[in-house]
Amino acid sequence: MGKSRILVVDDNTKIQYAFRSFLENEGYISIPVEKGSDVLKILEHENPKVVFLDIRLPDTDGLEILRQIKQKYPGLPVVIITGHNNEENKIRAQELGADGFLEKPVSLTNMRQFLKDI
Q1: Could you tell me the pTM of the whole model?
Q2: Tell me: domain 5-117, CATH 3.30.70.100, correct?
Q3: Which of 14, 77, 83, 84 could pair with 50 in a Cys bridge, judged by C-beta atoms 3.0 to 4.6 Å apart?
Q4: Which residues pair with 62 in a beta bridge?
């Protein structure tokens, strides 16, 4: 069986690098995506174990991408990652079906636990 693939949607290259380093050390393959508009196209041919999705993207709202993912792929776990933690975002993400909510800088312990639980 091959390594599980994980989609990381964030336009910040430093965040992408940190996720890739962590995920590869944990035995996963990181698939970086910088634009929200690319997510659904990529999901057509990739079958990731989970999607880590930033709320603020340059071309679209991450919560709108979450809604679209959950509509088309309801069983796919999606974890919101954000540096703009507020209760409104958290509530809206839960209403749209987010499976988790992680604040930047993301705790590796929390991420490891989430990956273990899915």
Answers
A1: 0.94
A2: no
A3: 77
A4: none
